[in-house]
Amino acid sequence: MRMILEVIACSVRDAVAAAEGGAGRLEIISRLDLGGLTPDPDLVEAILKVVQLPVRVMLRESPGYTIADRAERRRLLDAARRFAQMQVDGLVLGFLRNGDVDGDSLGEILAAAPSLRATFHRAFEDVRDPAQAIAALKRFPQIDRILTGGGPGDLLEKVKRLSFCARCAAPEIVILAGGGITLESIPRLRDEAEIREFHTGRAARIRDEVDADCVREIVEVLNGKR
Fold first, then answer.
1. CATH number, residue 210
2. Fewer beta carbons within 10 angstroms: which end of the chain, N or C?
3. What mean pLDDT is reported for the chain?
4. Element (H or E) spanning 213, and its range?
């Protein structure tokens, strides 16, 4: 299977550097320091004009994983509808309620962009029961990715959790490994947990900007060339 590296882009420059380094997909966000918030639609449009890569767009209005009020919900719905009118590959989103997937909010917002696929982001790290959460996410055909770093603990524990999640999620959903992933951990996650898609933010950056050489190095490790 083809190995895919998804790179976070916060600017056109980030997107171009990621493409030059061999990224297979982009996740466009604002506020990397807050874990990623909804980007300006104008930025998304600008990136789509210069980069020929699948693009997923963050849909998150506040740093937490709950929707605070009706105004925030309205902003999320408006953003979903606007992104659905663009040539993006999908959305990146995740909502929880008391440690479980917030299926009501998830369904409402996905329904505002029915043509788009979606990644359930690292809100997954805070679910009480990963297997139960995966089963809940499978009820939404638009969701085809779950982003997770494998939870706390050492690399062996992460490998075990990611492998378990990958088995539970298949075949409808692919596990996208990200969050604390390093050049040293990638080979074990690839070979032992059979992960084929990886996500990176800071590991691909120098001085807060994506660096093509950093991306290229990660891609080479993914493909066993280093």
1. 3.20.20.380
2. N
3. 96
4. helix 212-222
